[in-house]
């Protein structure tokens, strides 16, 4: 198996504040990988470490086979990097920025960029600073696709975008990844958009990695169970079976990787009487909230 | 690739460069009109005696202009880079990071050099029409530290903006202001004649500080 990114036992602190400890994951070549987590769980920190803009306290991070803190210019040319907020050289216009970047990348595809720009209702000499966030995102996407990188690292592509632009962004990315066998590493705080897009994911919480597994496996194995119980005094806690729980009066919601039988046996063993037991189907966002909690 | 990088730098500073050239020419025109008026209303020997015995500097109005031009160039070139951490885009370009930063500094330095050579050239040739070569040369030597202050202001503003740590920014600013004050402190003709080379070398050394600030930026110091 060829891995494009290999993160091993990464630990980082900002001063005394722990971001995470022993974060490890690998990204397969040609896959679409999501780093999911609430705000402040270390997604951008990880992106910064991956791009060599932050030295981790300990651990190692290999990107396209090189130490991420010492990426060679040749390897940088193979990595497309989207900064959170679709940051670009806003003092340039559409034509100038294409002219600028085209000099750096040997596989530059000018037509891909201008094809995307032709769909925008902007003039070629319009400065990027005068564009809406949505338009700016298309310029950024056009530049990334024209670069034709082997690995795309996208830090919160969804920031500031309305539903239309978010969908457009992902549609282009999907087509690009499928056609060219490219690897995409993406973070976002809008999980619902990534449903059906991601192949593999790591979910971060304030205590570190909650899980890493293929999305389909997560979707099929992670379940939400609801039931009623007369015993409102039960003290629920996370354990090997219950990954998270919510209670509203006598209504209980449990999240687990166990199947129906496992859950029923679990409740019986704990001598909890239950009624109206049902397994509720979840979309990716609900499953994400289920495993990380609402707070 | 470096051609593209210089294109980006030009896009950022072009209005400052053009504006500075216009200001320089306007200031020099005003300066020579004023000098002409002084010559008209005074005898030549009076002006000579003021210059020789009282260190009268008819051109001291330009003293702070190189400093302001250096500062404006530094801000125009590096503020867009550090705003929203845009410098990450630049450092992600397929070039060695130190080379990129030094090239950016070298580009700004060359623009400043051109602006200052134009300024100095017009001043020198304009004044050589009126004054003897010894006085024109003394003017030149006297004004060199002022132009060095322009380069120093440029280098320091760039380094301070790229520097991520506030504590170091303050240290750099305090040290920089002291150095520039020293460059500006001359009150008579050619006062720093024998220390111009050390001053020039110290100014040049400031440009390399960008590597340290860039290193801390890249390391994610905060």
What's the helix and strand layout?
The complex is a heterodimer of chains A (295) and B (222).
Chain A: E1 3-14, E2 17-28, E3 32-37, H1 43-50, E4 58-63, E5 66-67, H2 73-76, E6 79-82, H3 94-102, H4 110-118, H5 133-147, E7 151-154, H6 163-180, E8 183-188, E9 200-205, E10 208-214, H7 215-221, E11 223-228, E12 242-248, E13 251-256, H8 260-269, E14 275-280, H9 284-292
Parallel strand pairs in A: 3-8, 3-9, 6-7, 7-8
Antiparallel strand pairs in A: 1-2, 1-4, 4-5, 9-10, 11-13, 11-14, 12-13
Chain B: H1 2-41, H2 44-54, H3 65-82, H4 87-92, H5 97-130, H6 133-162, H7 166-184, H8 196-219
Structure, explained:
The complex is a heterodimer of chains A (295) and B (222). Chain A is built from nine helices and 14 strands. Chain A is of the alpha/beta class. The two termini of chain A are 37 Å apart. In chain A, the strands form three sheets. In chain A, strands 6-7-8-3-9-10 form a six-stranded mixed β-sheet, with helices on both faces. Chain A has a four-stranded antiparallel β-sheet with strand order 2-1-4-5, with helices on one face. Chain A has two domains: 3-213, Rossmann fold (3-Layer(aba) Sandwich), CATH 3.40.50.300; 222-292, Alpha-Beta Plaits (2-Layer Sandwich), CATH 3.30.70. In chain A, strand 9 (200-205) and strand 10 form a beta hairpin. Chain B is mainly alpha-helical and 222 residues long. The two termini of chain B are 31 Å apart. The model of chain B has no long low-confidence stretch (mean pLDDT 90). The interface between A and B is medium-sized, with 29 and 23 residues.
